[in-house]
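Posting for a labmate who doesn't have an account.
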Amino acid sequence: MADTGPGGPRPSATPEPAALGSTTDDRAATTTRNHISGTVYGAAVQAQSIGTLTIHEPAPAIVPGALVPCTLPPVTRHFIDREAVLAEVVRLLDQALPADGVESMGNGGAPLVVILWGPGGVGKTATALRLAAALRGRFEEGQLYANLRGAAAATALTPSDVLLRFLRDLGVHPAYVPTEPDAQESLFRTVTVERRLLTVLDDAHSVAQVRPLLAASPASLTIVTSRTDLGRLVVEYGAHTIRIGPLGTPDAVGLLARLGGTGPGVEAVAQRCGGMPLALCAIGARAAATQQPDWELLEREMAMSGETDGPYGDERPYAHDGTGEREVPPGAAGEPMRGAMDVSYGNLSEAAARVFRLSSLRPWRHVTPGAAAAAAGVSEEEAGALLAELADARLVEAVSEASEASEASEASEASEAEAAAKARESEPQAGDGAESGTGTGTESGTELKAGASDQARYRFHDLWRQYAEQRALAEDGIAGAASAVRRTLLWYVRAAAAADACVLPGRWHLGPAYARLAGRPAAYENGLSALAWLRHERENLAEAVRAAADHGLDELAWELCEAMWGLHLRLGFHQQWVATHRLGVEAAARCAEESPEAEGRMRAQLGFAYLGLAEYAQAQAQFEEAAAADRRAGHIRGEATAVESLGLLHLKQQRWTDAAECFRSARDLARQVGDPRALALLEHHLGRSFQGMGRHEEAIEQLRHALELIRALPDPYNEARVLMSLGQTLIAAGRAEEADEPLGRAATVMAAEGSVVQQADLAELRAERAHQAGDTEAEIRFLRAALTLHERTGAPRTGAVRARLERLEQ
């Protein structure tokens, strides 16, 4: 019996696949099977023989009561000029999307795309957000924002990263957000095709990054900012490009006046800044710090820096990059701003300047006081104060709570509860030990506070980061900069391990970061707050892995990957998972002599990333190589996990006999480790394999044995999972009357666990049981319960259950 019907695992971070074929003929185990090969959402048609069949219901419903997304960051108070840009966008909008809501056919039904392009520091983001704020009233069905971090290819977010956030912002329940990028893009088009949306895609790197993020509705507006004009979007989508140039001198003087007042010499300072808002804001902050700013003195200081040749003129040509897109010359934006940067930096305290330099050495998504403290070798409290000083000087930007709210919602309590349930269904257990010590550590007298997810965060503009990095190399030297990076990476390893140990306290771990947690108090009140921290730091953790690889710190590279297991198992992000753990595998292989167990661990985790992307051949290769590596290392616990993981892959492929063989082998290995929880769950896996083969009586006996072992642990959630499997098998075996008791007990436990998806499964399974018994009243009762639960999550089966209920109630 495939796991795609009621009672089987619902769509999750690792979707159930169609049958892929097997090295053994599992289906020959039964004389007659009415089997559908494929992924079925909603109604299915069965006959004596059907080949491959795929029936998809329309896209999942939006979760009822979901808020209309409004994730635009607040606009800056110090905004000047750009009225012409606003007027042009309003004109385009009126042509394509009249205010009465009737779309003009002049755009051929295509969504309106406006590209604001120009050099870094010229004010593209501020202009885009001011436009969005002015126009949001015309897009009452939602406003979305994403910082694509496209200043460089290395920092640019993948479309999948953004789509995950957008789909959840739009109300798609996390349990039904696909893991495959193509499926995410298709679902995004589906849920936006009839919505009047405003989207701001800030700091885009390329057309390929933007294309999947364009809303499908012709009533939508997408504003893109970029350092290139993204010419192919003009050709493909009829996008309109508007170049954002430096401010004219009168407006530049006006901005300085708003920030720091006016006086003799202010016009000369504005000219020294080249009309670039980023430089003007920094100089304005410097002036504002004094009661009576001396603009003439500031102008002389800027002149003495010898680094700026005056304004960056609009007449300067932009070169083509060979792809039809015009590149702003590298460093061009920095030329008129260097003097302002030197003056602003020179006004910092020595301690703030050190934090500024040493926090800039990698393109972190944001900088926290903890990471900055590690980089600079100061206390976290002192680092927090110094970061605030940098923000006051406009050298870094404090990340507002509003701009983080959308991403924080992805790790909300409700979402995490469902993610936790999904993870517990698929996480390998063989060899998992009972180590559950959690806590934090210290280095160089600095307390490592993994901290709450709402701690202060600061962000560099990439031009300021590049300037700070150059200063670090000049003042601290290559060795000093490398030491700062290593201290930061070590902080991240320890902070992530402390959080991971709270997310998955029962799993076995590798690496000294976990060993030092033993006997220490927990770093977080619960697993949800720990998972929220990991979610907030996800991009920085990936950057830390890349930094470790770049600096040849192989031990730290794989240890960071190990500490991200709970994050990825619970919340997915499979593209990042694959990228980081491929580096982890390479690093672990180079550390084979010092840490022989690491390679197998990294390969097993990489295999699960591929499994989540339905790349089964890659997953199988990694699981097999993991088992081989652990066998060479004599690491029985790791080998048991790898073999069990291979069995879980075979379950998804419906290769029942192969799966059972893997689970038997993993069970033999787990017995050597002596882990009762792993043994109990392996017995459950084995029972599921027998069920898939159609060997129902053996499956029933096996599942009852697993139930005894799990009750002895105890583990209520997995006990309920076994009860569900037992009830499902009893129904399939024609012993439906015996299924009532285990299914009822499972429903009680799942309700207590708050597992909405599993409660819906159970309600459908119990409705099927009532149908077989001819009890229409009970069937309707259970279907109503299932429908209510499905509607809470926007499940794909909502329509099928509703249609079945309507037929019964006619």
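Reply:
Got it, the structure tokens are right above this. Residues 477-503 form the longest helix (27 residues).
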